[in-house]
């Protein structure tokens, strides 16, 4: 037995009547035991539907409800097929015909009312096109005369005084922004967000070219390191409550770091042997929107992969060891200038010691 229920966050869910379920079970078990199959039960239910439909036609039920009952009875008789008893077929056909005639009469009445209402209200000869299309503004003469009057305003317009703040544009600003210049721009800017966006744009578009031109400049690393410190100080305050802008800040800082590292490696080839100490998946959680930012992230990750591949496993530039495999030891062995400096210090110390003795 199908005990269906219709409920989806409903105030009063609907389900089949429990009394009707008991009646159907009793009818089906009784009729099946007295006959050779379940067809007698199905025929009885179809007869019951026909009886209910026939009696309901005298109750002035809505048309949609009668149509539903009509279709339900027709479906049950059609499912019985050749097993439908002749008396049931005749009785059901009578109920269906009476219901169909009632629905046809109601529909004819609706059509007749519509035709009557349209024919009685439609009188095109009585239309006054000129009067219906004329626009009358009886109380608007004074307003229109004042609006159309050719008067010259004596009020002087407010002077246009545009505000202009210094914009961070162009690769040359990486040199100019170093050593406090960038912090001063952020502080004096009337719009900190615009100043930060200008610097971030310059990092995305101009930083790589600037770093390539200054690979062997003695103060290039220090200039970019100053930019990193001053940009982080301003951006971390401005972006503190926005994860997307914080992601932009982190990406900008790593773009600056990549160019610092690239310049440092160009000036000290020994650094290639040592790990950059930055995990490859560190920047995966960043929230980036623009394609340029995603390309910049790809550039940073590719650079990190290259540096990790070039590095000798187990060697760290931050190691406190002073052995021959440490950065300090290898740097001393590789650069004659450092050894000469140490020799000069040793000779100077020896000479001072001899003078004292």
Describe this structure in words.
- The chain is 64% helix and 1% strand.
- It has 15 helices and two strands.
- Strands 1-2 form a two-stranded antiparallel sheet.
- The chain is elongated, with a radius of gyration of 47 Å.
pLDDT averaged over residues? 82
Low-confidence stretches: none
Largest sheet: 2 strands, antiparallel
User: How many helices does DSSP assign?
Assistant: 15
Would you list the SSEs in sequence order as H and E?
EEHHHHHHHHHHHHHHH
Shape: elongated
Query: Roughly what fraction of the amino acids lie in strands?
Result: under 5%
| N- and C-termini, Cα separation | 117 Å
Number of strands: 2
Q: Report Rg.
A: 47 Å
How much helix is in the residues? 55-70%
Characteristic terms for this protein:
about 350 residues; mainly alpha; two-stranded antiparallel sheet; elongated
Produce the secondary structure layout.
Blueprint: E1 5-6, E2 14-15, H1 18-34, H2 39-56, H3 63-80, H4 86-121, H5 129-133, H6 141-148, H7 173-176, H8 181-188, H9 192-205, H10 207-213, H11 220-238, H12 243-267, H13 291-310, H14 327-334, H15 336-356
Antiparallel strand pairs: 1-2
Helix pairs in contact: 2-3, 2-4, 3-4, 8-11, 9-11, 10-12, 11-12, 12-13
What's a quick, concise take on this entry?
The chain is an all-alpha fold and 357 residues long. It contains 15 helices and two strands.
């Amino acid at each position: 037995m199908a005990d269906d229920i219709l409920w989806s966050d409903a105030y009063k869910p609907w389900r089949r009547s429990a009394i009707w379920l008991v009646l159907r079970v009793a009818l089906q078990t009784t009729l099946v035991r007295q006959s050779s199959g379940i067809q007698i039960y199905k025929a009885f239910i179809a007869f019951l539907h026909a009886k209910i439909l026939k009696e309901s036609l005298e109750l002035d039920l809505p048309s949609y409800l009668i149509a539903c009952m009509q279709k339900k009875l027709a479906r049950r008789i059609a499912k019985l097929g050749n097993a439908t008893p002749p008396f049931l077929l005749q009785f059901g056909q009578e109920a269906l015909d009476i219901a169909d005639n009632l629905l046809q009469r109601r529909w004819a009445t609706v059509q007749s009312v519509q035709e009557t209402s349209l024919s009685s209200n439609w009188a095109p000869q009585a239309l006054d096109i000129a009067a219906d299309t004329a626009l009358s503004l009886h109380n608007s003469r004074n307003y229109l005369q004042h609006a159309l009057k050719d008067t010259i305003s004596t009020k002087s317009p407010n002077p246009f005084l545009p505000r202009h703040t210094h914009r961070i544009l162009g690769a040359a600003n990486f040199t100019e922004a170093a050593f406090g210049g960038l912090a001063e721009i952020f502080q004096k800017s009337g719009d900190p967000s615009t100043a930060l966006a200008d610097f971030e744009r310059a990092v995305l578009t101009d930083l790589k070219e600037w770093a390539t031109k200054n690979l062997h400049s003695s103060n290039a690393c220090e200039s970019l390191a100053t930019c990193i410190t001053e940009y982080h100080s301003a951006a971390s305050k401005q972006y503190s409550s926005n994860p997307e802008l914080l992601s932009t800040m982190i990406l900008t800082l790593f773009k600056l770091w990549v160019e610092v590292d690239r310049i440092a490696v160009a000036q000290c080839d020994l650094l290639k042997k040592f790990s950059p100490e930055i995990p490859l998946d560190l920047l995966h959680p960043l929230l980036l929107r623009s394609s340029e930012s995603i390309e910049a992230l790809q550039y940073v990750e590719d650079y990190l992969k290259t540096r990790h591949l070039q590095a000798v496993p187990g060697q760290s530039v931050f190691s406190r060891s002073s052995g021959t495999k440490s950065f300090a030891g290898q740097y001393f062995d590789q650069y004659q200038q450092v050894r000469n400096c140490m020799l000069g210090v040793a000779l100077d110390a020896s000479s001072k010691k001899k003078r004292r003795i």
